[in-house]
Amino acid sequence: MLGTSGNLSVLISERRATSDELLFLITASGKDKGELTEDDFILVNENEENVECRMQNVELKPSAETLLHSTIYKHTNAKSVFHVHTTNSTLLSIKLQDKIIFSDLEMLKGLGFKTHDVKVIIPIIKNSQDIKYLAEIVPGYINEEVPGLLLKGHGIYAWGTSPKEAKRHLEIFEFLFEYRIKELSLTKSL
What is the pTM assigned to this prediction? Predict the structure, then answer.
C-alpha cells in the first residue's frame, strides 16, 4: 500500500440482534500504510462513529471509506476488508466498462472455487465522492461467491473470513488484473 492510500479493517463484533452493535477496527485516516502500528487502527461502529472517542479522549479520525467497509460486513460473511489502490486494478477499472470477467484460470481457485472451470465476474462501480451513495448501491453489486469489487479509477475492495483470507483474495485479484493487462498487450501486438 503506497503512502496514505487504502484502508484495512477487521470485524470485532457482529450484529446478531437489533440491540447489538456492529464493531470493527479500521485504519485511521491519513496514516502511512507502510508504517502502520496497532495505534493506527480505531474502533468504529456501523455508523462510522469512533467508539474509542466515546470511551476516552482519542483524536483519531476513521477512514473516509468506513461506511463502505460497514456495508460489506452487513452484506457478506466478511470478517476482514482490505481496500488498496493498485496500478493494475485502477488501470483496468478505467479502461473497462462495468465488469471484468475471468474463466479457465487455475488461480481462480484462490478465491475459493473448487475448479478453474468457472466464470468469475468482478463488478466495476462508478466511483463517487459521496460515500453514503456508494454504500447504498454497493449491496446490489456484491456476489457472495466473488469476494471483491472495483471502484472505477480508485482500486479494489477484497474481503475474507479472516485478514489472512482477505490478503489472499487481494493477491489473487492482483494476479488476475496483471494477467488481463498482459493478455490485452499481447493481443494488440500479435
Answer: 0.89
